[in-house]
Structure to design on (318 residues):
């Protein structure tokens, strides 16, 4: 873990723990006593949603989009940001333990959820939001949800970039922004619906799993399609590199053939004169062998040997 990453994780974790402590102290216990069953059901759905989070991100930079955001953020108007933060911390811890993540990752995930929910809840309350969801409070709920979504996205994108040693801005990739924020926006849009349904009949609350499941499957399908496209692009790149390597091998073989042909031509040219002399010597010896004296024969043999040695030397030089 790099120094920048350590400082960033430590800062987020510290801020998250401090904000969580403040949120817990601000919990409205009277409201908790009014809707304990709804809180329990929302919390259960948050845990379930964290366990089936949607993995996104390519190039070995994975991130998750939690469909649990519907019920986590829905707890803000239902029971306040303190209860919402506790539920999300519980869900995050359960999911991270189930996936056997390191303790520091578990603490960081919980802290960034707390910070995002605290910001969203503070904006919702500042804009007049309360425990009842109706037409007048929808703008406040939308602004709070936007803050929750953006802060969560920024915190996770920064830590992902630092963890992989790339520039922070490079972690905000357009395709990931569209998929992650688009999916999160669809999930958060169901938060007020969940609160209204819970207010009318808790028995109808599980029906929201159907649209959430559709969002999950659609986003999962897009992610898988992107993975397949990326794999196809990697295969095409590998094929291109192999083709280039094959072309280079062919070029080198052609160059070797050309050099061999040049060498043979040179050797043939260099050997032509000595061989002519040698053949002439042997021809004279064969035709005039009876008329040549011993000295003449020795002279011709020495001439042939000399030309042979000269040819040998020339071959070695080549």
């Amino acid at each position: 873990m790099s120094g920048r990453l350590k400082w960033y994780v430590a800062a987020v974790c510290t801020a998250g723990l401090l904000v969580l402590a403040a949120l817990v102290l601000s919990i409205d216990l009277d409201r908790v006593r009014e809707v304990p069953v709804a809180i329990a059901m929302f919390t259960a759905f948050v845990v379930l949603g964290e366990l089936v989070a949607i993995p996104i991100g390519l190039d070995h930079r994975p991130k998750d989009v939690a469909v649990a955001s519907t019920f986590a953020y829905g707890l803000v108007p239902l029971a306040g940001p303190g209860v919402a933060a506790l539920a999300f911390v519980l869900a995050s811890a359960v999911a991270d333990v189930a996936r056997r993540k390191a303790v520091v990752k578990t603490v960081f995930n919980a802290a960034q959820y707390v910070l995002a929910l605290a910001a969203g809840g503070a904006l919702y309350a500042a804009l007049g939001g309360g425990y009842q969801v109706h037409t007048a409070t929808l703008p406040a709920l939308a602004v709070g949800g936007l803050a929750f979504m953006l802060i969560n996205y920024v915190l996770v994108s920064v830590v992902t970039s630092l963890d992989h040693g790339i520039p922070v801005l490079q972690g905000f990739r357009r395709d990931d922004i569209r998929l992650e924020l688009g999916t999160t926006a669809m999930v958060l849009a169901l938060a007020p619906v969940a609160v209204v349904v819970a207010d009318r009949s808790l028995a109808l609350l599980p029906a929201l799993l159907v649209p959430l499941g559709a969002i999950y499957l659609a986003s999962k399908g897009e992610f898988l399609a992107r993975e397949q496209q990326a794999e196809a692009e990697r295969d095409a790149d590998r094929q291109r590199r192999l083709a280039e390597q094959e072309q280079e091998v062919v070029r080198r073989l052609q160059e070797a053939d050309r050099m061999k042909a040049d060498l043979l031509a040179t050797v043939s040219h260099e050997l032509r004169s000595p061989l002519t002399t040698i053949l002439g010597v042997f021809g004279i010896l064969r035709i005039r062998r009876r008329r040549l004296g011993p000295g003449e024969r020795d002279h011709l043999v020495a001439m042939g040997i000399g030309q042979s040695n000269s040819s040998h030397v020339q071959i070695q030089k080549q």
Summary: The beta strands are 54-56, 63-65. DSSP finds eleven helices and two strands in the chain. The first strand starts at residue 54 and ends at 56. The chain has a mean pLDDT of 78.
